[in-house]
Amino acid sequence: MQIERLVQMVFYIVNHGHVTARELSECFNVSTRTIYRDLNTLSIAGIPVMSTKGAGGGISIMDGYTIDKSLLSQGEQQSIYQGLQILQATKYPNAEMALSKIGAIFRNALETKWLDIDLSYWGSDEKEKVKISDLQFAIVNKHVIAVCYVNSELKESERNIEPLRLVFKSHAWYIVGYCRCKKEIRIFRLSRIRRLQVMPEIFERELPQDYSLTPDSRVACDIPYLKLKFSPEIAHRLYDEFQEDQVHLCDDGNYYVTVPYELNHWTFHYLLSFGKYVEIIEPEIARTMLQERVADILKIYT
To answer: What are the φ/ψ torsions at residue 227 (nearest 5 degrees)?
Structure first.
């Protein structure tokens, strides 16, 4: 529809500064003649579109022009407001101020507040909530950070990291960065950082465009599938922690789940959290490994 193209065109020009009619025609898959008609429509609508010839010229919108809120639908305004609420929950710098301003601009479009976000766990105090202002500064301005990091075996190490991205995955924050100790890009869980200091040193590294937190298919092929049987007493956890299509209620009254899990400490500690209400059906090696861990626990109490 033309109205949607016109709105997108305004945002495109504002974001790119100067553009050409050919660039716009390729972007929106219409002829240059249609682009010029659209630009004329925008001018009639009061949007100060300017066209200059020569080197450095092109199509632009007058400096200082701001996009009126009427260009955004009520649903789009609501989405922007909700996005800022999520940032506010992460203690993102200045999010509360931005939320207040956006709320004032969009107040006629906003619904009654229905979303309340708190990323801290039950029982945590204010000190334990994630604070990311230092990391935001370090990532945006490319400052090296020095941290004391505790790994999964509870061993502390001092690391100098070039922070490249802050990621919220599942229920925790992670830093993706180049570890100068290991000389490779690593993922660090934020809750395992005991001390963090932003250093004055600047780095130039960028995160590779093809970088992914998800392991590639070759790695995934090496991960075995575990078939698990859960008693109905623990059913309330299953739909919270597994995908719906992974959980199957069978005629025997038990729930069966098949998931790809590496056979490591995390997997077995996680399964032990279900106590007597879970049984590994297959593979046999996983059953044996869990039995060994249970036997080690029994030794403590005998």
So the answer is: -100, 120
